[in-house]
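ERR on first pass: missing label on line 2. Operator R.T. fixed the label and resubmitted. Corrected input:
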Amino acid sequence: MTSSDLILYALAIPFVTAILIPLAHRVPNLREAITLVGAGGLFVTVMMILGRVLAGERPSLGPVEVMPRLEIGFNVEPLGMIFACVASTLWVINSIYSIGYMRGNNEPRQTSFYVCFGVSLGATMGIAFSANLFTLFLFYELLTLVTYPLVTHKGNENAMKAGRVYLMLLIGTSMLLLLPAIVWTGFLAGTLDFTPGGILAGNASPALIGVLAFLFVYGIGKAAVMPVHFWLPAAMVAPTPVSALLHAVAVVKAGVFTVTKVVVYIFGIDVLASAGTVDWMLWVSGGTILLASLVALRQDNLKRRLAFSTVSQLSYVVMAAAILAPISLVGAAVHIAAHAVSKITLFFAAGSVYTAAHVTEISQMKGIGRRMPWTMVAFAIGALSMIGVPPTAGFLGKWFILQGAYETEKWIAVGVVILSTGLNAAYFLPIVFSAFFEKERPEHVGEHGDHGEAPLPIVIALTLTAIGTVALFLFPDTLVFLAQSMVDGGAMVEGVPDPDMLADPGGVGSDTAVGTEAAPAEEEAQ
Amino acid sequence: MNGLVSSILEHYNQWVTIFLMVAGLYVVVARGNMVKKLVGLSVFQTSVYLLYISPGKILGGTAPILIDDPNAVYSNPLPHVLILTAIVVGLATIALGLGLVVRINEVYGTVEEDEIFERSDDE
Amino acid sequence: MISTQLLDQLPALQVCLPLAGAALCALIDRRYIAWVLTTLISFAMPVIAVMMLIQVMTVGPISYAFGGWEPPFGIEYRVDVVNGFLLVLISVMGAIIMPYALRSVAAEIARNKQAWFYCMYLLCLAGLLGMAITADAFNAFVFMEISSLSMYVLIALGRDKRALVAAYQYLILGTIGATLYVIGVGLLFAMTGTLNFGDMAERIVAVEQSRPVLAALAFITVGMCLKLALFPLHVWLPNAYTGAPSVATAFIASTATKVAVYLLLRFYFSIFGAAFVFEDLPVTPILLVMSVAAMFAASIVAIFQGNVKRMLAYSSVAQMGYITLGIALATPIGLTGGIVHLFNHALMKGALFMALGCVALRIGGCRLDAMAGIGRRMPITMAAFVIAGLSLIGVPGTVGFVSKWYLALGAIEAGWWWLAFLIVGSSLLAVVYIGRVVEVAWFRAPTGTAAEATDPPLSMLIPTWILAAACIAFGLDAGFTAGVAAEAADALFAGLRQ
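pass 2 clean. output:
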């Protein structure tokens, strides 16, 4: 199998799955089996691609010309690889979870649910592997459109309203700001290919670069930089598996992934740094981190609190990109993965609580930890990761981002990270605390009756992701290696592996050292 | 003053054309009666016939049939032919328009536009 | 084996076949025979058009002296890339709709009038093709009237009694438009003494700055803008599209206004010359303002329509704004955008109106509130609607995006970055009105007749889906459409003068 074939399979499997699912809509077991097989197949394919990427190859597919200057093409570079790995791995787990959740809650229209899910994963793969802005934009819009029916899944007035906000904000920003930005870039650079070092060097004045960066940052509404974040809390009306995989992983990560990609491969960090017109990016992302955390503090609805936490955490990635230091970009990439695993765990736990206890508000969750120990322990791990406490994945991202901020002396960023860590603790720890150490209120028991853990598939899923959260901290080598090679990408263009990188396993080794070194440092600090 | 008068008189055919054009258009716009509108439309179209035909007439010219006189001046036949076609087109338009008005009268019981819109809005 | 003699006669056949067919339909007056005849002829049309386009692309423009009278004395039919492309578009649309027409026409038009419907359909097709193929200004007027008169009849055949009034209104405004055009042509004829496009283009240079020529330009512009329904001269269009039978709407919406655009292009670029029209005269700002006004005003009005057909009609007015915007930009890229949108808009509006025709077949109307939940009952039809709707919005991967890309690129290239934002901004309005339909059709519980509706027969589904699929196919591979459009734009800029 050639690498191009593998990319083709990775793109095709989700779509084929989506086509097969409706054929089996009368046999739920078969239908779910198809989803699982599809998810498994995708996972295996992506892992095979990962193997080749780690070996230094840069598989590509296409490009096929749509019209002059616009091509559909795929090229797997490290950042996309990370994103694809995260999304495909979590799809498998999420599929298991979905089965438990959708059946446990007797959700209607499950077939269309799984179909849309499959297509969104296909779109996510397209985004991850895209070789140019147009391809990325194509799948970006597809992802918006196909997640819209998932958001409005409940079909009531509330869901419709949320769906409108969702669609208008995402399509609105992408059409109004992102598309002109892409056209403009294409006009200036004559190409839209993601190129290490960027394509705008020498093609645009610093002022124009500032304007373009503005268009990109706000045009990529999925990155949820305030004030275009409203769609994310709105999307929480969707069933929890959707919030978990799509609105904590695929969709939002597609946003920050695109931002990172644009910063690294369209502008080029050197160009941005020398232009000096993008300092505002630090301010808006830092502001988003803090503001969203403050808003999260005041939410009683668990999913909404998680949503605002996501808004805040997404801006970490944007900020990491805005720091414009190579090491902080490593942090951005690592944070994309780390936040994905941890946030999906939190959402899984929220859905688990809803399925077992029919509880959606935090104030109703007192003492629930004793009834649902697995769920709440997983929740606690996820929460710790959000705060950035070792040994959880969240620590890694923050570490690299801080390092970058120190290096470039961006003290705002340092301050924001410290402050927000405090805020994260303030809105997550009370939930954990009250779930385990407060007395259950009798009136809440009366509402949902005596209950235990959620259905088995749910528990399995959230345990797996909780383990993943810790594992990512303990074994970050691959992840950090990939992130690192994104930054030194210049040496590895065109699929020609850099001999030094291959010959010197220290490339991996030294990165590991960064990761492990980090842990004691933090421990000492504490 | 003299110049203006003479220019009006010299181009009197144009002035007639313009008068008919504007008058026809005015009737179409200002009248609510569908038959009258068609009359206006017809006047408007007629002005075009004049626009084509009148410059085609050459003073002292004869019909464009070859005669022996080498100094003969012929009128340009093309405008006439064109307008013959245009008249046919205009005829068809007015006929179809009147046909529609008859149908409208059958269905609505009136050919006044404002009354028709009132009745359409009621539904 | 087709003899070369027959090949030489293709331009004439393109127009004469449907004309003769129309007469036959009227004489036979049997609805099935008329349908079969119309289908045969309308399927022959794209074959002829494609053969001519191939010949044009390989050999060069075709010139055909009608009746053997050499141009500029006789009427010349001339096919180059610009109108070759247009002929293909019209004839393909005319053919795709025919299989669809059988059931739709049977349901919507009285039995004894069906043969006449096909007669008018062929007449309209002949008129539109004639307008596109002829290189004679007056001949174009005659064909314009043939197509318009038959169109008035097609519209008046609608079930709703308001269709009669709509047809009447269209007749008045359409005739004014055509007459204004013929006044303009008359003035040009007076100044140049010729009606042949090529001849006129050469002779006009000498008299370019004279007042009659300026007046002619103004008359032709206004006349054609009336025909192509440029805002605010669009008032006839919404009523006409709403009232007409589904088949007629799908056909008219995807072809009629496009031909008017073509004539305008022909006069602007080939006859008056781009330099004269766009550099010496303030045509660009005027067209630009009206186009942008159309894009926004008509889209906003569309949002508030209760009848989906009417909503799409207003959307058509807005989309015509994109096309005229491309003309107003007067750069090769902008013009390419306008021309490619001409084609793309035909595809998507055709698909949308045909999907609506399927709905009308099942629930007897196109009111939005009657369409609640129809998506669950007629999923295949409404899926086509959604695809074409997305195309209207300009989602990447659909034809709408291709048009928008070129237009935005043209705007930025001209240094009008604000225009690029207006172009993409107006497509957000399309999100709103298409979104409204999607919400009602897919997420409401079906009620009334919609509850019992099912997908229409294949004869209607397949044509609808061909167009919907084309919206995606030409969106993902725009090489052909954008390529031909770019070539057409270049040909227009090059002009007819040798």
